[in-house]
Amino acid sequence: MSRTRLSAQQRHEQLVTAAVAAFARGGYAGTTTDQVARLAGVSQPYVIRLFGTKQALFLAAATHATDRVEQRFRDAAAEQADLQSLGAAYDDLLAEREFITVLLHGFAAGAHPAIGPTVRACFGRIYRTVRELTGVDQDEACGFLAVGMLLTVLGAMRIVGPDAVAHEPWMTELVGGLDLKRAFPGPDGT
């Protein structure tokens, strides 16, 4: 049986995909390059040869997750350029828990001197993309991102999303209190 040889770009993408999965599970501190290598089906020295360090691999995973959010927003805006459309696109991303969890791990590591600049740039890129695509003002963009971050945290805790846990009363109250129409208004404000 012959194995298909992957191009360097395909191998890079395979490793970043494995890194997203591994870092989503263990965070930056709790994940090793060996775990990523095993998920990707390659050797640990190969991971280091391509990325140099675990830190560079983590930053590639966080950047990839940000790219995914940005692309989903751009696709949604191509259909309808408003916060409601972008909010629906983000709601769909909540089902892809690994992406949002990697972002959350990245933001949590944002105080790290080598990680912080990249993850802050990722967050800034999402903010600028929201403003660019929808034309909303600073306050509306901040409100949109605030609700998005709450949904990210709730998604990471499995309070919202396709595999949500059974709700305790406080969870039902919190999720029920999210007025997504108000947070993500359509072009006519509704």
From TrEMBL:
<dbReference type="GO" id="GO:0003700">
    <property type="term" value="F:DNA-binding transcription factor activity"/>
</dbReference>
<dbReference type="InterPro" id="IPR009057">
    <property type="entry name" value="Homeodomain-like_sf"/>
</dbReference>
<feature type="DNA-binding region" description="H-T-H motif">
    <location>
        <begin position="32"/>
        <end position="51"/>
    </location>
</feature>
<dbReference type="InterPro" id="IPR001647">
    <property type="entry name" value="HTH_TetR"/>
</dbReference>
<dbReference type="Pfam" id="PF00440">
    <property type="entry name" value="TetR_N"/>
</dbReference>
<keyword id="KW-0238">DNA-binding</keyword>
<feature type="domain" description="HTH tetR-type">
    <location>
        <begin position="9"/>
        <end position="69"/>
    </location>
</feature>
<dbReference type="GO" id="GO:0000976">
    <property type="term" value="F:transcription cis-regulatory region binding"/>
</dbReference>
<dbReference type="InterPro" id="IPR050109">
    <property type="entry name" value="HTH-type_TetR-like_transc_reg"/>
</dbReference>
<protein>
    <submittedName>
        <fullName>TetR family transcriptional regulator</fullName>
    </submittedName>
</protein>
